[in-house]
Design a protein that fits this description.
- The complex is a heterodimer of chains A (about 475) and B (about 100).
- With about 475 residues, chain A is an all-alpha fold.
- In chain A, about 70% of the residues lie in helices and about 0% in strands.
- Among the domains of chain A are: about 5-180, no CATH class; about 195-280 and about 365-425, no CATH class.
- In chain A, helix 3 crosses helix 4 (about 75-110).
- Chain B has about 100 residues and is mainly alpha-helical.
- Helix content of chain B is about 70%, strand content about 0%.
- Chain B has five helices and no strands.
- Chain B has helices at about 1-10, 30-45, 45-55, 60-80, 80-90.
- In chain B, helix 2 crosses helix 3 (about 45-55) and helix 3 (about 45-55) packs antiparallel against helix 4 (about 60-80).
- The chains are: A mainly alpha (about 475), B mainly alpha (about 100).
- Chains A and B meet through helix 1, helix 9, helix 18 and helix 19 of A and helix 1, helix 2, helix 3 and helix 5 of B.
């Protein structure tokens, strides 16, 4: 089930009144059970067998949490943390990387003339596995570090890991920030309705109009056969992909945050105008913030962070970003994507002696503008490897950027306008949501309903039939 | 101590920054918004409802649902909203070339 569809609308129209009805009747346990049941239905709608895997992941982390509590401060407790994290990673590794590992091993053995029969398996990649295993790890580590004062009941762990808005494509919700919300029922008098409605509509617009048109009319054909197109189509397909992936992924996050807000729950913000970043460090504070902060807190810092000298800081940055790249998928292109980001983050750190240039006050405007342009183009270069079918296709596209003789075939004024729009929204005032919230409070509820209905109808009219899956479903 | 640690963690993760400067409402404010928006979608985009029922797996219930959606769409076409929406869709159909 994906968000901007009638299936999801009907599902939510049942879940929302049930959840609030139970909360208003002070049936907190039933409220949580209803949302858990809805979340498993949401997940099983795609493949019911894999709902058992999700439940297995919940049981693993719940059980480990109980043991960590019991053995807190002892070596048995520490070993439980290590084993639970390893079990989560094994689960993720088996489903996500087993095929890649066997294929790479097969290639290696062939190149060494040592061919063997290897145990190839047909493995279905469970949707959202990267997200729910990371949340499981967050529960274990937050508990171990004392960010959570005690382990939580099975119902709460199930709710936290399986809650349908974030289940299949994030944001990656942190145990320490989410689980305390489950201790009392959501307050029906303190719901951020304006924020929720705004995020849902905005997300649907970005996904259904901007991301879908750019994907179908420009990005997909160009990345499928780069050699068929000239430099202008190739260049704008790369810009188009930068906007597409932002509008696609941030749309999912916006809808998820909005849908959860209307149910009375809070998630971490996931995007903050990433293409206005003035340094790569700044970019990673704005892009997929729930993943970058997860990698920082659960990988970079445990690796040593910047505490053991310059060389180890660079190594840790590189390693964190390479592993972050591999998190996206089992392919060398993601390794390269992560290595490029990690390498330039390390370079930035070396050049600026550990300070973030974007945080400096009083930088001349032209330097800030030039920094934004440079960082955006570097990020676009990395997106080429991220989006291309394989490294050969990425090289083909980059090589084609020198081919200025071929006429423009795909780029149109409409697509150009979408790219320009995607860039313009990176520079809107930071208080735009607050202004829109004030507008929401000035309108009567029926007026907001009519406005939402008309906007959704216009989006439907422009976008046409069908909703493509979100890009981050594959991760 | 535990609660202070939790608060610190929640703030540093930015869980509340989207809501800063925004006013909460009552949950029931969602009801008219959702009801009106959904009603408008079903009235004007009744063709979408028909397409949705056509993609459902075959069963007695789904056939009855599909028939009902067709009756609804015919009514909306006869009274005008579905025709209006179709006209708007055709008018703003984007030719990307």
């Amino acid at each position: 089930m994906i968000f901007p569809t009638l299936n999801f609308l009907l599902f939510y129209l049942l879940v929302w009144p049930t959840a609030w009805g139970l909360a208003l009747l002070r049936q907190h346990l039933l409220h949580k059970l209803a949302i858990i049941a809805a979340s498993y239905f949401f997940y099983a709608f795609w493949n019911w067998r894999l709902a058992f895997l999700l439940f297995g992941s919940v049981l693993l982390n719940y059980g480990a949490g109980r043991l960590i509590d019991r053995w807190r401060g002892t070596s048995a407790g520490l070993w439980t943390v290590r084993l639970a994290v390893a079990a989560n990673l094994l689960l993720l590794g088996f489903f996500k990387y087993y095929g890649w590992f066997i294929e790479s091993l097969d290639d290696l053995l062939r190149s060494l003339a040592m061919e063997r029969e290897l145990p190839y398996l047909e493995i279905v990649l469970p949707i959202g596995i990267s997200f729910f295993t990371f949340q499981g790890i967050s529960y274990i580590v937050d508990l171990h570090r004392g960010h959570l004062d005690r382990s939580r009941p099975l119902i709460d762990v199930m709710f936290f890991i399986s809650f349908f808005p974030h289940l299949v494509a994030g944001p990656i919700v942190r145990a320490a920030s989410f689980l305390p919300q489950l201790e009392t029922p959501p307050n029906p008098n303190r719901v951020f309705v304006g924020l929720g409605v705004m995020l849902v509509i905005w997300g649907v617009f970005k996904k259904a109009i901007v991301a879908n048109y750019l994907a179908v009319q420009l990005v997909d054909p160009v990345f499928l056969a780069p050699s068929n197109y000239g430099a202008i189509d190739l260049l704008f397909a790369v810009y188009g992909y930068a906007i597409q992936i932002y509008c696609d992924f941030s749309a999912y996050s916006d809808i998820a945050i909005g849908v959860a807000a209307l149910l009375g729950y809070r998630f971490q913000r996931n995007f903050n105008q990433p293409y206005r970043a003035e340094s790569l460090q700044d970019f990673w504070r704005r892009w997929h913030m729930s993943l970058s902060s997860w990698l920082r807190d659960y990988l970079y810092i445990p690796l040593g962070g910047n505490r053991h000298g310059e060389f180890k800081t660079y190594r840790n940055l590189l390693l964190t970003m390479v592993l972050g790249g591999i998190w996206h998928g089992a392919a060398w292109k993601f390794v390269l994507w992560g290595a490029l980001h990690g390498g330039v983050l390390a370079l930035e750190r070396f050049v600026y002696k550990g300070h973030d240039p974007a945080a400096r006050i009083g930088r001349p405007l032209w330097i800030r503008a030039a920094s934004i342009v440079v960082i955006f183009h570097f990020v676009c270069l990395c997106w080429v490897f991220f989006r291309a079918e394989d490294l050969a296709r990425a090289r083909e596209l980059l090589g084609g950027l020198a081919n200025w003789s071929q006429p423009v075939e795909l780029l149109s004024l409409f697509l150009l306008a979408l790219i320009a729009f995607g860039m313009a929204i990176q520079f809107t005032p930071q208080d735009t949501p607050q202004r829109l919230d004030r507008l929401y409070h000035r309108l009567p509820a029926w007026g907001v309903g009519v406005l939402c209905g008309v906007v959704l109808l216009l989006i439907e009219a422009v976008s046409g039939d069908g909703a493509a899956p979100f890009i981050y479903f594959q991760f | 101590m535990g609660s202070a640690a939790r608060t610190d963690t929640a703030s540093s993760l930015g869980t509340h920054d989207l809501e800063t400067g925004m006013r909460p409402s009552r949950a029931r404010a969602v009801v008219p918004i959702m009801a009106i928006a959904v009603a408008l979608l079903f009235v004007f985009n009744s063709a979408g409802l028909v397409r949705w029922t056509q993609n459902l797996p075959p069963s007695t219930f789904n056939t009855a649902l599909s028939d009902a959606a067709n009756v609804w769409h015919d009514a909306m076409t006869a009274t005008g909203p579905a025709r209006l929406f179709e006209a708007v869709t055709n008018a703003i159909e984007v030719d990307l070339r």
